[in-house]
Give the backbone structure.
Amino acid sequence: MKKYGMEDIRNTALVGHQSTGKTTLGEAILFNAGVTNRMGRIEDGNTMLDSTSDEIERKISINAAVAAVEHRKTKINMIDTPGYEDFIGDVVASMRVVESGVIVMSADAGVEVGIEKNWAYLESLGLPRIVVVNKMDKEHADFDKCLAEVRQKLGTKVMPLLLPIGSGESFKGVVDILKKKAFVYSGGAFTEEEVPADLAGRVDELRTDLMDFAAESDDSLLEKFLEGGELDDRELIGGLSAGCLAGTLVPMAGVSAIENIGVSQLMDFVVDLMPSPAQRPKIAVTTDGGGKETIDATPDGSAVAFVFKTLSEKHLGDLTFLRVFAGEVKTGDDLYDANIENAERIGQLYVIQGKSRVDIDSIPAGDIGAAVKLKSSKVNHTLCVKAHPVIVKKIDFPEPTFFTAIEAKEKGDMEKIGSGLHRLAEDDPSFTVTVDPEIKQTILAGQGELQIEVILARLKRMNQVDAEMAAPRIPYRETITATSEAQGKHKKQTGGRGQYGDVWLRLEPLPRGGGFEFVDAIVGGVIPGKFIPAVEKGVREAMATGVVAGYVFQDVKVTAFDGSFHTVDSSDQAFKTAGSKGFRLAVKEAKPVILEPIYEVTVTAPPEYMGDVMGDLSMRRGKIHGTEQEGGLQKIKAHVPLAELHRYSTILRSMTQGRATHHREFSHYEVLPHENAQKLIAEAEAAREDS
């Protein structure tokens, strides 16, 4: 593949709800560009874009797939992104390295939640887009209904540029409004014809609207249009392209990807109407001194390349996907990873076409490619020249909403599981892996249950270890609600030197969040000062293992106020044991309770789901303490026990058809209801008996 200048490159992402046909559309584009001699089918597991074993087995897109094609002397780098919310990380990463998006919707389904969310992402980044109404060959396909829905829910700036001829079984072609020509398909090929009579009036009307719009984008065009009432094709495309770049126009096209109807015309729109990298605004970077500035997207000057994805698969090897924002990255270059201040030598470079690669010598500014076997550069790292180090603004991956513990199916595999998960997290920063020392579990936090299932399948395939999801243990705590005193006495005689420690402790509750306070109130030398630290150590050890049900103790003030010692038999160990005993005895008389962690949960949902969401939160022992409006959505704030939040993101998604999101963070501890506490105590006693 030849090298292209920035003006002749288009970088675009195929985005949308699950099962709208994004991958099939990508396959049709690859076929039309001559990259393949037949279109792959998801059902047959032979597509160029869904090529990993997980994707083939599940018949869904899991990874963003990059594919470069050439069309009308222009290079189109398209990124086919997953539609499932669980894999939103790859969608967000892809949008950071493209200049436009192609939103794919189903002609028989209309505006689904994935369409709304991807539209919002593109809008927030200021990226031009094309809306593709796919599956026009399906029963119940309705282009006009989709157009009305898009305008109602997403914005009135959507204008049809490619009208379908028929729908369902009668769908046989498209009308290109710009060219005022019909393209009728038969046997996989199309013929150019005149606009059908029943569409002629609508085509004329739409073309006039487009003329008006294009003329308003430029004073000279407006003057010409007012004088003659007409613009030539070049002027019309130029005006519409300016509108797309400014965000005041979103073209809409009706196609059938699986029948390859309208796809060639869509490729024309990407070339003619979507911006090139040369039209990209300046790139935000951080300099070596920590300052914020911007750099020009230019082929001149020092190389600046951004890692937006890495992929490790046995049949693909380790691939590092790069978007070059400035300069040029060449095979053999010695570059500098500014994020970790490490040298990185560039080996083999490739143009990626789904599961295929084409060797290249360099990746120029504005282009996307991949390198193999980079030493340490990961997602969100910037490769540059050491003499001019900069860091491109990182991708803001969505915070995890699904939390699960991971357990090994075979004893002794947890260390191997942990190292494997950390390696996978380098490829996919949208999930995290942590080891919680308090609950003694490995916790995975991601975007959804499906994502975790896929991660565990990859772990098994790559590291030969089996792991399964489990409910995370809850970090309950223990505390007291009354003041008490008790003697802790440790006396042991075994022949020879014995052990003797004797201390009186007073326990007092502290306010919630007060932690732990130890007071030395010994007077008269009844316990030598050198043994007091041992008493405190014994108390702390008892607090760490709990008294009531084995949970960490908190919010207590402990005062050592009396005791005795033996001049020969007393020791640090004896007083440590005495301190532990005294604490445990005093707790039993201080009305102990179990505390549970309470989280601040914020749910953002459309108003029609408010009742269901609030009712569900109440069933989870949640206490709602505020609602407010944010745009067209409602924000609900509640305090909810962590024990009631397991799999909450999955349930919330199901309850609201995926339209609600939630954020959680620790708030405070509260006393666990008596019935729940008794159950925990019984479980702890049973565990002690078993051991």
About this structure: The radius of gyration is 33 Å.
